[in-house]
């Protein structure tokens, strides 16, 4: 690790991708919960 190395900051595209994946994961979790509720109510 050199003092001239850049900061350990992920690039902008990677950050956007992580944000999208996080949102997608949250959406999937909510969808699974809803599906379980619907199936459980039947």
Can you give a write-up of this model?
With 42 residues, the chain is mainly α. The protein contains one helix and no strands. 0% of the residues are buried. This is Morphogenic membrane protein MmpB.
Brief digest:
Helix content is 71%, strand content 0%. It has 42 residues and is an all-alpha fold.
Would you spell out the secondary-structure blueprint of this structure?
Layout: H1 12-41
What best-fitting shape do the alpha-carbon axes yield? Answer: rod-shaped
Largest sheet entry: none
- Whole-Å distance between the termini? 59 Å
Strand content: under 5%
Q: State the helical fraction.
A: over 70%
Order of helices and strands: H
Could you tell me the radius of gyration in angstroms? 19 Å
Uncertain segments are none
Task: Write a concise keyword list for the protein shown above.
single chain, 42 residues, mainly alpha, 1 helix, rod-shaped, membrane, transmembrane, transmembrane helix, Morphogenic membrane protein MmpB
